[in-house]
Amino acid sequence: MAKVQIITAMTLDGFLPGEDEELFKWVKTDKRGFPFWHGRSTFMLPISYPMLDLICEKDEKDASCIYTAEVSDTKGLELLHGLSIYHLIDEIIIYILPLTAGKGTDCLHRLPVNRWKLYQTVAFKNGIVRLIYRKSSR
């Protein structure tokens, strides 16, 4: 069965960073940020991808197939919401930016109640931390 992963970046207080934020620009362009996951992905999920099609495709593909959804703006949150409704997310990759926004768009509030297992952490010299969570079988 294929894997569906989410990649996102958020501030310490859980908001989507602004497009003009320098650290967010790093995440979106550096080879250790979003481009790393784009390169490993079999298929990047566009915002309007039909969830029912994905449900069927996911079951038909083998484990080496990775569907990736980038959540970096409000349109990406719509995709996250659709994936959440059908419990399709297997892995969440979060880049935590070392800043607080105080306001803005709440990043992961659309996720359903679920248990996630921390798989990996990486701290970068610029203060950004990457957390990878996988769906817990429990």
Characterise the protein shown here:
With 138 residues, the protein is an alpha/beta fold. It has a single domain (3-135), classed as Dihydrofolate Reductase, subunit A, CATH 3.40.430. It is 27% helix and 28% strand. The two termini are 19 Å apart.
- Total strand segments: 6
The largest sheet is: 6 strands, mixed
The tally of structural domains comes to 1
Beta-strand fraction estimate:
25-35%
Fraction in helix: 25-40%
Radius of gyration, in angstroms, nearest whole number: 14 Å
Q: Which fold name corresponds to the CATH topology?
A: Dihydrofolate Reductase, subunit A
What is the CATH architecture assignment? 3-Layer(aba) Sandwich
What is the general shape? globular
Structure classification:
alpha/beta
Task: State the assembly state of the protein chains.
Answer: single chain
Given as residue ranges, the uncertain stretches (5+ residues, pLDDT < 50) are none
Order of helices and strands: EHHEHEHEEE
The CATH homologous superfamily is called Dihydrofolate Reductase, subunit A
Task: State the helix count.
Answer: 4
